[in-house]
């Protein structure tokens, strides 16, 4: 049995070292009434209907409106979107015998997300929800609904041209987005304080770190293309599926994305396929 393999089939770019001023006077010939006047010792309005009691009520109403407006969030906390019901709803699709059933937890994901505070923050609530829907659509596809922690086809995936590989180590897919290739492990390790080249297996031992590798890859390589639509994210994660390379895999990813958008009460944007 096998699952679609991603990130290993497509090499990603390797990191390199190297007004007119208003008038202050009132026109005496104006047909409009002058502004209400008040002095240091009085606060008298010339509008007969605006009593102090009415003014008090208007002020209360204005404060209530402003408070309600301020309470409308442009974004929501990731934890408010990735609820236990949503997260476990994905994981519950996997058989109980899967290694990922106990490895992937919402708590570990949220802890990892704290290290990437811009994740799920797109400036609007629908935009934030779309990003999270896209991320978990790929996680679902890559891991078989959080069943697999490590790729079944455990090839070496070593390209020593820039980052030498450690003896006996293999850089096959691990974690929620199946981080693959030695150069990805090397750079991701530097960003997340682990020895990616010398100990790639740690990604499959540490649940929080596993989520961090997925978020690192997402924020570094995938998030910049989100404005182009979900299809562009497929191309970044496993581009060989696009243009007819693996149409069923593309359809599966899009189906997950559409489903999660529906769960979040939003509409998918255009360009969902590749």
From TrEMBL:
Alphabetized UniProt keyword annotations: Carbohydrate metabolism, Chitin degradation, Chitin-binding, Disulfide bond, Glycosidase, Hydrolase, Membrane, Plant defense, Polysaccharide degradation, Signal, Transmembrane, Transmembrane helix
Biased composition (Low complexity): 19-32
Reaction(s) catalysed by this chain's protein: Random endo-hydrolysis of N-acetyl-beta-D-glucosaminide (1->4)-beta-linkages in chitin and chitodextrins
PROSITE patterns for this protein: CHITINASE_19_1 (PS00773)
EC identifiers of the protein: 3.2.1.14
One Gene Ontology MF term: chitin binding
Alphabetical list of Gene3D superfamilies matching this protein: 1.10.530.10, Endochitinase, domain 2
Biological process, per Gene Ontology: cell wall macromolecule catabolic process; chitin catabolic process; defense response; polysaccharide catabolic process
Pfam families linked: Glyco_hydro_19
Residues in Glycoside hydrolase family 19 catalytic domain copies: 98-120
Superkingdom of origin organism: Eukaryota
Segments for region (Disordered): 11-32
Transmembrane stretches, start-end: 55-78
Family: Belongs to the glycosyl hydrolase 19 family. Chitinase class I subfamily.
Protein name: chitinase
């Amino acid at each position: 049995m096998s699952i679609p393999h991603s990130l290993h089939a497509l090499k990603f770019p390797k990191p390199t070292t190297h007004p007119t001023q208003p008038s202050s006077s009132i026109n005496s010939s104006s047909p409009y009434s002058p502004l209400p006047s008040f002095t240091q010792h009085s606060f008298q309005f010339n509008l007969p209907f605006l009593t102090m009691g009415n003014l008090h009520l208007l002020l209360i109403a204005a404060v209530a409106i402003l408070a309600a407006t301020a309470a409308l969030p442009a974004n929501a906390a990731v934890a408010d979107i990735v609820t236990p019901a949503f997260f476990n709803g994905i994981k519950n699709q996997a058989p109980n015998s899967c290694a990922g059933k106990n490895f992937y937890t919402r708590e570990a994901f949220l802890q990892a997300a704290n290290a990437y505070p811009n994740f799920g923050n797109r400036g609007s609530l629908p935009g934030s929800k779309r990003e999270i829907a896209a991320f978990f659509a790929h996680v679902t596809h890559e891991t078989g609904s959080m069943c697999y922690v490590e790729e079944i086809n455990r090839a070496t995936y070593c390209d020593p041209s820039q980052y030498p590989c450690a003896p006996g180590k293999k850089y096959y897919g691990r974690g929620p987005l199946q981080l693959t290739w030695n150069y990805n492990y090397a750079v991701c390790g530097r960003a997340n304080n682990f020895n990616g080249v010398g100990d790639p297996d740690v990604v499959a031992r540490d649940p929080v770190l596993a989520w961090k590798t997925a978020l690192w890859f997402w924020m570094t390589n995938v998030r910049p293309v989100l404005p182009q639509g979900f299809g562009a994210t497929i191309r970044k994660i496993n581009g060989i599926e696009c243009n007819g390379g693996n149409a069923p895999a593309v359809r599966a990813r899009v189906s997950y994305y559409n489903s999660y958008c529906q769960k979040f009460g939003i509409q998918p944007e255009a360009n969902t396929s590749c």
